[in-house]
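Suppose a classmate hands you a notebook page containing two proteins, each written out with its sequence and a corresponding row of structure tokens. How would you begin to make sense of it? This section walks through that situation. The first entry is reproduced here exactly as it would appear on such a page.
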Amino acid sequence: LKGLGVNILLSFLLGVFLKLVAGALPGIVGTVSLLISMVIGLFCCFMSGYVTAWSAKQEPVFNVLALCAVLVVCGVALAFTGKFPLWYTIASFVLVVPFTYAGGYVFLRRG
């Protein structure tokens, strides 16, 4: 669960950062802010996969895959809010699992 905590914390900080940027630069909204959000969000997924594998005492791959499942469920819940464009929702579904798994994979290769 440490990886999920890392993801939630980094996502919260991302939200605060984007609110500050949107408030300071009102012209940067829309596609640019969504792309920035996606890049930072994928970094958060990578780090959460790394932390999950690092903190797993046994079966780090299973723990990372469980984290991927939780993130997909959260993504499904957010997808039905209709607040995001279709391209953003599809890209999130396609990229979240590989980036999260890559974080765990990098830890396993280093360890």
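The notebook's second entry, a different protein, reads as follows.
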Amino acid sequence: PAGGQGPNAGIQDGHTLGTALARGAEKKGEMHSELENYATRRYAAAQSAIATTQQQLRILTAQNRVQKSIRNLGIAALSAIPKIQRKALSKTAQQDALQLAHSELHHSTD
């Protein structure tokens, strides 16, 4: 998924599953019910992530000249807002740090 939703979904899955398992262990005989509830909640979250990703991809891969112009103007307008600039720079710095750590990890094991 776009926008970092994949890792976030994985973290949410782990937390939600852990909660469901703990509740199921507390309530003897209700493990199956808790796991069914978990599956229902996570399916809804996955569907939402897929829908958001599809919308983002449609916008980013627009082929129509008018759609491209609107997209580009919107990006330019949003990128002029200082709060959005700071958030984008922060995310870029985080991604750079992760890539560096990943690179160093692979070099240290070679």
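A careful reader of the second entry would note: The chain has a mean pLDDT of 79.
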